Structure formats: C-alpha cells, structure tokens
Prior knowledge:
2 copies of one chain form a homodimer.
Chain A: H1 8-27, H2 33-49, E1 64-67, H3 73-83, H4 90-94, H5 124-143, E2 155-159, H6 161-165, H7 167-179, E3 184-190, E4 193-194, E5 197-198, H8 207-213, E6 217-221, H9 228-240, E7 246-251, H10 274-284, H11 295-325, H12 327-337, E8 359-360, H13 361-372, E9 379-383, H14 387-391, H15 416-428, E10 434-440, H16 448-456, E11 462-466, H17 484-489, E12 495-497, H18 502-514, E13 520-524, E14 528-529, H19 537-541, E15 545-548, E16 556-560, H20 563-577, E17 582-586, H21 590-594, H22 598-604, E18 612-615, H23 624-627, E19 632-634, H24 645-651, H25 656-667
Parallel strand pairs in A: 1-2, 2-3, 3-7, 6-7, 9-10, 10-11, 11-13, 12-13, 16-17, 16-18, 18-19
Antiparallel strand pairs in A: 4-5, 8-14, 15-17
Helix pairs in contact in A: 1-2, 1-3, 1-10, 1-11, 2-3, 2-9, 5-7, 5-15, 7-15, 11-12, 13-18, 15-16, 20-25
Amino acid sequence: MTVATQSLDELCINSIRFLAIDAVEKANSGHPGLPMGAAPMAFVLWNRIMRFNPKNPQWINRDRFVLSAGHGCMLQYALLYLTGYDSVTIDDIKQFRQWGSRTPGHPENFETQGVEVTTGPLGQGIANAVGLAMAEAHLAAKFNKPDATLIDHYTYVILGDGCNMEGVSGEACSLGGHLGLGKLIALYDDNHISIDGNTEISFTEDVSKRFEAYGWHVQHVEDGNHDLGGIQKAIEAAKAVTDKPSFIKVTTTIGYGSPNKANTEGVHGAALGKDEIVATRSNLGWSHEPFVVPQDALDKFRKAIDDGAKAEADWNETWAKYQSQYPEAAAEFTAITSGKLAEGWEKVLPTYKPEDKTFATRKHSEITLNAIAPVVPQLVGGSADLAHSNLTLMKVSGNFQKGQYHNRNLRFGVREHGMGAICNGIALHNTGLIPYCATFLVFADYMRAPIRLSALSEAGVIYVMTHDSIALGEDGPTHQPVETIASLRAIPNLLVIRPADGNETSGAYKVAIENRHRPTLLALTRQNVPNLAGSSIEAVAKGAYIADDSEGTPDLLLLATGSEVGLCIDAAKKLREAGTKVRVVSMPCWELFEEQDEAYKESVIPKAVKKRLAVEAASSFGWCRYYGSEGAMISVDRFGVSAPGGLAMEKFGYTVDNVVAKAQDLLN
Amino acid sequence: MTVATQSLDELCINSIRFLAIDAVEKANSGHPGLPMGAAPMAFVLWNRIMRFNPKNPQWINRDRFVLSAGHGCMLQYALLYLTGYDSVTIDDIKQFRQWGSRTPGHPENFETQGVEVTTGPLGQGIANAVGLAMAEAHLAAKFNKPDATLIDHYTYVILGDGCNMEGVSGEACSLGGHLGLGKLIALYDDNHISIDGNTEISFTEDVSKRFEAYGWHVQHVEDGNHDLGGIQKAIEAAKAVTDKPSFIKVTTTIGYGSPNKANTEGVHGAALGKDEIVATRSNLGWSHEPFVVPQDALDKFRKAIDDGAKAEADWNETWAKYQSQYPEAAAEFTAITSGKLAEGWEKVLPTYKPEDKTFATRKHSEITLNAIAPVVPQLVGGSADLAHSNLTLMKVSGNFQKGQYHNRNLRFGVREHGMGAICNGIALHNTGLIPYCATFLVFADYMRAPIRLSALSEAGVIYVMTHDSIALGEDGPTHQPVETIASLRAIPNLLVIRPADGNETSGAYKVAIENRHRPTLLALTRQNVPNLAGSSIEAVAKGAYIADDSEGTPDLLLLATGSEVGLCIDAAKKLREAGTKVRVVSMPCWELFEEQDEAYKESVIPKAVKKRLAVEAASSFGWCRYYGSEGAMISVDRFGVSAPGGLAMEKFGYTVDNVVAKAQDLLN
Lengths: 668, 668
C-alpha cells in the first residue's frame, strides 16, 4: 500500500499510530502496542462521535474520555495534539516521558489539560468513568428542563484486558449496570495480549457474558482493525440504549501494522526499535518524517476546533435561555458548578460545650454531615454497605438510583475499591460536586490505590472512615486498625484527621469541604467520647493545638489524637495534683500542623520541652517525629484482639493510671 | 411445631441456629443472621458430605472448609463444637467474642484449630479457597499414582452477597474458572440482605451468569431453608463435575426462624434480643436451655468422630502402601509436607564479589529464585502479569494450568488482590508449600488487605515487589513508590526487606524461605546496583549491619537501604578525603534489626553518634526512629515524576555530591 492509495481515514489513523511509535522510540520508553491497535476505534470516537472543544478543555458539557488502559497514553496525547488542544503541541509529543514535559508516562489530569483523570494503575479509569457518568446523570436530573438540556454528555472509555481482570473494574461496572448509566460507553480493546503474553495464559472468561450479567448492553465489533463503519454503528447503537451502560468488545491486533511484533507482548511496553519502525512504515505505507502528520489528516482532525466551538456556542445559547427562563435553577447550577461554597455555609457546623450530650465521633460525623447537606447541595456520597455503621446517610435526600439520579445518597454496595475510584471520577468531573465515601477505617486497605490517586490527581474526595481503633472491640483484629492511620499519614497530599470530639469533627468537615484539591480522610470512633473544653472548629485547621494546659512552661507534653485526648486530659488532672505542669496537645491533623509557621508550631510543641508522651490507640510508626528522642508513647504495635472495646483499651494500656505511670517514668 | 415433631435433621439444624443465637446474645455482639439462614446448607455439608477428622484438625487430606462470610463465624464455631473438635468446647462457645477466648469475632486460623484461614474482610475467604484448591490440585498431580491416591480433598466455601460484590472474589473466581479447579465448590448464601438492607439497593447483577462467564458449573437450590435433599444433590452434582469449579446458589432467609427479624438487615449484625429469642424459640419449637444441645442431635453430629477416624485410618493405610511402593515419591512428599527444607539448601544461594557483573536486584532475585527452585520443590508462585518485569518465572518448571497442575509457575493475570489472597490460601493449606507472588511495589496498594492478613494469620507468603522507587523512571508518579515502603513497615509481623545488592538479595531470600509463619516482602530495583564489598547473606538476617566504616568512632553515620547503600559508600569515600570518619550502615530490614539484642544494635548504630544522615529514595515517614533528633534525611516526600530514572534520582538529590553536602550540613 502506498500513501497515495490510503483513504483519508487511514491517513488519520496512521497519523495516530506513528506519533505514538515515534514518541516512544525517541523516549526509548513507553507502550506503542495499544495506540497502534486502538487507533481505529479512537479515531472513530474522536473524529466522528465525541463532542468536545479542543480550545476549551473545561467546557462543562463536553463528552468525557477516559483511557483506562493508561499505559497507552500516547494514543490520547496524539489525539489531543491532532484535534487541536493547546495543552499538547508537537514539541510536547517529542518530549514524551521526559523531565518537565506535559506528556508524562501515564495520563495525569493535573499535568495535561484534556486528560480527565489520572490512570495507569489498571482498572481505575473505567471505575472513574462510572463516577463521571454518575455525576452527569445527577446534574442532568437536577437541572435539565423539558425544553432546556444543560447537561447531556457521554462518557467514553477505552479499556483493555488488564482493566478487565482487575477486581476494581468489576465492582464499578456491577454498580454501573445496577444504576443503568445509559450515557456510559466502554470500548474494550480486545487484543488477547497482556504483558505476560496471550491472555489464554490466565484470562479465558467470557467477558461479554460477564458484562451482560452486570446488566450492560453488549456488542462485538469483530474487526476493530479495519471496520470503522462497524465501530461507528456500534457506538451509535450504544448511544441509543439509554437505560443501560454499553460495552463494545472491539477485537484488534496489538501493535497493528508492525510486521514482526504485532500480536505479541513485545510490542506492549517497549519501543519498536529502528528496524521494526522501518518495516512498519513500509507495511503501512508511511513515508512522513517522524512527528510529521500529513496536512489533510491534520485538517480532518482539526475540524474538531470549529465543531467544538459551535457545540459550545450552542450550549452557551441554551445556558443563556436557561438563565432567563429558570433563574432559580440557574443560580443553583452556577452555585454548584462554580466550585464556590455558599456564603456562610460553615455557620451550620455544630459546636459543643463540655456539658452537652456525648457521642461517638462517627455520630458527630452524621450530625455534621446532615447539618451541612442542605447548605452544600454539591455534597453527594455514601458508604460501601455500612451506612448504618458509618452513619453517612443524608436525611435531606433519597437514594441515587436508576430514574432517581437527582438524589444524593450513593449506595455503593460492598465495593470499597470501586467506591474510591468512582468518587475520584465524581470529583474530577470538575462540576463542583463534592463526593464523600465511607467504610470501616481498616478497609482503607481495600481502597488505598484510589486514595493515593485522589492525592496525586488533586481530587478533593472526602473519606469518612469509622471504627478507628481497637476500641471497636469484638469484631477483632481483622477489623481493628492498628497501623492504618500511620500508613495513610505517609501518603503525600492527603489530609488525615482524627477528631477528638464534636467540635473537632465539625472542624474536620470544614477542612474537608474547603479542600477541593486534595483529599481528606476522617478517622472516627465507634465509641462515645467526651466533649472537650479546649476544642474548637478553628483549632483543627491548625492541625494541632493546646487542648489543656498548666500555667507556665510545661514539664511534660501529652500528645494525643481522637479518643485519647480526653484520656490525656483526665491523666493531666492527676499529674497536676502531684505538681507536674502538663500540657495536653490535641493533634487531629499532622499535615495541617506541618503547614503552620514555626512560631505557631513552637508555641504548641516547644522544642525545649523534651519530656513528651504520645498517646494514640494505634501504631507508634512515625510518631517519633513528635515525641522525639526523650519521649515515649503508649501505642498498639501488634494486632488487636476480639473482646469488648472498653476492655481491649484497658488491656492495651489506655487508662488514666497507665498514662500517669508512663508520664512519671519519663519525668523520673 | 413442637420439639417432638422435629426430624432429627431439623433438630441438628436448629442446634446450630440456637448456639449461634445464644452465643451472640450472651456476648451482646455478633452476627446471628447468617448462621440462622445458612444452617441447613452447613449441616448438609458437615454432616453428610465433608470428610474430616474432628480429633485431628491437621489431617492432611481433610476437606477444607472456608466461611468467606466470616462475620457468620458462630456458624463455624457451632459446627466445630458439635462435630467434636477439641478446639471449641461449649465453654468456648459461651466465651464468644470475649478477651482470651478461642472463639473470636471473626474466624482466626491462628487462634482456633479447625479454622483454615482468617476471614472477616469480605471476599478474602473465597479467594483463599481458590488457593487451597490450587494447592490440592498441585499436590495431587505431583504425588497421586494410578493405584494410590494421596491427596484428594474438596474445598468448600460458604460466601454471601458481600463477598460476591467484592472485586477480589471476582479476580480469584475468574482465575479459578480458567484453571478448571474441579474440587472447589462454593455455596452462595443468597439471602438478598446485606448491612444496608435488601441487595436491590445496589447489587442486582446476575451472579449466576457471571460465574458461568468465569467458566464455573452453576446450580441453584431454590429453597435453601428446607430442601436438604436438594442441597445434597447439588453438592453431589458439583462433585461430579471434575473440570470446573462449582457455584451453588442457595436461596435462604437471613435470620431464618426469627419471626420479626428474619429477612431484614437488623438480624445481620446484632443480637436478637431477649424478646425475639423467645419468639424464635417458640417459632422453631425449641425449648432447650441456652447452650444446651439435644443429645440425639449431638450424637448425630458426633458420628463425625468415628467417620473421621476411619477416613484418616484409611488414608494412613494408603500412605503406608505408598511409602513402600513409591519410596522416592514418598520421600519427596514427606520432604515437602513436613515443612522442613532440604539440608543445606541455602548453599545454592549465589554470592558476589565487588568485581562481579552488576545487576538490578530484581535480576538478582530472578537468579536467586532460579537457584533455589530446584532444591526447594515446595516453592510455587508467580506474578500478576508482570513476569517479564518482576522476573519471577522459575525455569525449572512450566505453567500451572488445567491438566498441568504439577507445574509451579502460577500465572495470576492482572489480579493483584486476588493473587495475594490466593497465596494466603496456598500457605495455609499447611502442606509445606511456599507461595510467592509478585507485582510492582506501588501495587502493594491493590493487595494491602491480603498482605495484612498474611501477617495476622501467620502465613509465610513471599511478596516479590519490583520497581521500588522513583528510579524506575518514565512510568511516572502512578508507578513510582514513595510512601509504599513506609506503609508496609508499619504492618506488624511483616518483614520488609530492601536489599542493596546480590548478596543481600540472597540473604533476603534466605530469610523469606526460612520464615514460614510470617510473610516477607522484598522491595527490588528496576535498575542496576553495584556489588558491595561489605555485604553478605548472614548480615541480612540481622536486619542492619556495617557495610563500610572508618577506623574508630564515627563522626557520622550514613543510614541507607537498597540502591542508596552504594551511593552512600561512594559519598563516604569523599567525606573521608575531607577527614570525616564515616560509617555506612545498610539497613535492609528494620524488623529484623529490632529483634537483635541491644549490644548488637549499639554496635551498629551507637547511641552516642548523633550525626546521622539517612538516605533512601522514599518517604522519610518513620525514619526519625533511626536518624534521631540531630539527624537528617535525603528523602522523597512528594509524588514522583515521569522522566528517565537516572535523571529523576539526580533531580531528587540522590547524588554523591548531595549526600556529601547534606552530611557536611550536619557536621557543621
């Protein structure tokens, strides 16, 4: 085949392929196989189907595209460049995988406009996409009027074998099917190859049948390498099915076009190499210089600019009419999608005095969530089947279900990993929605990957994690967090807050709601805690503060969080009776404390005061940073035990007497 | 219905129910619903089907039973008691969920003989069971002769809606179907209720169809409350299907027998309460005192003792014949199943001198694994589709596949979470098999739950995790571990080893192979590292050691692990040129170091030497414990970046010049 005989479509598709091939070759790193194989379906999607404005990657009603098989990101970068996004120039393509480039090794939403979510870890993208589709359905249900459609976009995914093997994708797709998300369309790059070779080595399930079982509409395009019409028909048929998400299995050849490496794992994740590139160019009739795209192909792709401008202009018209016809709804739409919180919203946060009724902080969380919910309409969320234990139902709304998408309570089922990834999708829909999700703190272990991705991709997801220590009692060591909080504190860009009482819980929610570009995780008790005299909402924002103090320079600092702050205050009373000057520092959030200036930090934890006893019903891992070389800690550095919670706390040393004794050891 | 008119079977089933009801009531904590609803199927399994010896819970050829819905553990404790295990007496039942009891809140294999694996976190048990069935198939294929069947047991699972929603179960069951594990039989307690209510709230997929898609044999027992014959028939039909695992959906009523709470979420996880117990007793015609089981029911259950003794006696006969007919195979069988390693096995561990060719530690791992594999035949394992990156294929064997179960290379597919749980099952098959599994270190996040369970349940799984830092380069921040190692060090009872070179890698494997009751995780480099002069296999067992030293008391300690040890040794050279006395301490394993006596620890890291610079291409979280109040660290406390690995290391400060500079800052 020569260049001359290629159709314009083929030229376009090969443009995608060779940008990927050339970029990976230049970087001597990357994954050319998927871009080469999925180029046809991606071309159909981006050139014939998707509605977006390359010059405005933030246009609110754009179709969302997620490359769940994130290693194939040269596919996406090529399309961003070809369709005219300013975020990816040809120089950016040439800088693929280099220091400081805008084309990193896996798609990063915070790095490259046009990339919606950060993928790479397999299975995350398709689960994010379920969240994107949920966000679309929610806003559409809330705001669309019979004569004015404000929110009306599709969410398209390209995913591969890897994503389909990952459990997180099954969780999210099962929920997506249950919810009947009709605007979610997933294209499965069915190439039978993964890193370890042909998928027959370990992956022989009937994927299409599984998706039917999930309640998806399922199709198969048999020749994904050539049948552009078939791909297009399938997508159109998928769009026509409005009450189910759609799964289109598109059978392709990985590394299509490479005579010797196509259909092998070798083309998955390594540059083709000089010789094979020559052979591929010859095979596909490509004679352009590296990184050069034939003008007519570029022009065809770039019609997206005019199409997108028109689509957005049409939308602006609709929006203008909507504002005049439905001013109240328009105001609410603006309020939510602007990302701004209502003026004075924080006034609803409950505060407590010591004499008030005591609750567990999970109960304070429920009260606070329900105080916030009416004034923060962008708040949506729920639990992984523990709503009655996490106490995370918003009374002001019903359940988000098929045909009930305007509701705000998300019922995730026992699917912690999927839940986290879905919430990342909701957050990164970038329409102001604030997602929260909940489970038992120990099951953060099931969802660590999306928690990390929230932190990395700057998604302000709120993680409400209850049953935070051995004090939860009888459920025993599989359920009792010990090292969980430490493991989460280690994650960069994640705020970990363990509030001590109702005031601190309110303060935690204030921080969480306000932080829209980093996630917050709340660790909450199962059991009641006292209301502290020295706590406040404002104090939480400083991360740590003096909860209780003697006059003058302290002899000893008691450093505590959560349920142990009250314990330390009681112990401090006793120590003072013996003449010791004790300061109790509540440290609900290490990360916020570290962000304070030196003067503040010194005022709370003076360097000169070396006798420090940390008290947290959790692992000591990491605490040396605060209790220092002359300090000590009452900690849990082993797994817990099945027993009533109060007894467990006692046996593990969380008693006034033991705090006093350990403090005295330090002082003597 | 009165007691008199209950069949003996019904008496037995109600005995199970009321032990559960009474134990939960007494503890005022626990989950009565599942035991009440699943009692019929469990009775059929334990009384009519399963082959086991209550007086020898370790009988090697026993059928394995896993309660994946671990919260229903009173079901299992009741059966252990009723069938005559010594590990659960009636007093143990009465101490359910109490301090020091042998009947903790979720089943714990390390606590209660007869419990095979630790469950509670949903989805783990069914995945463990896939591992148990794989172990059975492997040993059967290796050792069974046409005229002598040594290993021949079934693995039965009871799982619920929660397990079926969890992604980990889908991963494992997809693999189980691919492998055609015909001796795995799962009973799905289909009661349509989870904690948050009727499953229609979020879980409406066609579970049976999904399991058909996985390649399982699927059946449905419509009346799991009464149709004992139907349950039995289905299990027998399942056993007759030898080339597929079997899934039997058994429709039941949660909390069966409770007039007011049956079929509601209220009966899932809370004691029935006095009044409802009275009503349930009346409803089911039960008038025995709490914890009293009618003698004829007990007798019927206890026939398991004689049956079990006979089954084991028959097996002993078979074994005796086998030993005389097949002495070599018998010797190998004993060698593996005794849990003892071959005398002198460690002699095969490669050692290196500085002048030897350098490799990445992932490559050293491959060499070592392959040196070990022939002399440690009990070693089985593999990667989650990264065999060619993790370098974890054993050349001495083929792939473990349907009809090829004697092989040792396990091809898990892109299923990290399932892989970890499967390996726990293989380890806890307690037949001496040593499982290893592999992925990229950052994806430990996907499998943290089974890693934790390895540590809790004393399973000596070996986790081979490669690509251990920003040095992996272009794949970027989603793939570059930063906080991963810290998060893993925080887990109790887990050995985390980051070897610096080939000698340390050999040392790491020695530790890992020898530690059969706690897991070991290896963090390995993608990139080459030098062979150190001061490293050795023995040194790793001490956790930390002096890799390089000046004469006399050091002015400064450089504390490093893995790829940074060589860097520190180079920096030490420079510092010595300037007259500084420098000691380089390699700290491959913190946990092992902490187990050494004070004298050793002092000899390596003298308390009096306060100037300490820690150098690890990872988070500083937790390092303060070693570098102390006057120390510092070159660390990565933010997410990484997509760029070539060498450049990334340089930009993040991992250069000789920067180590020297930071050291001088400390000294001045």
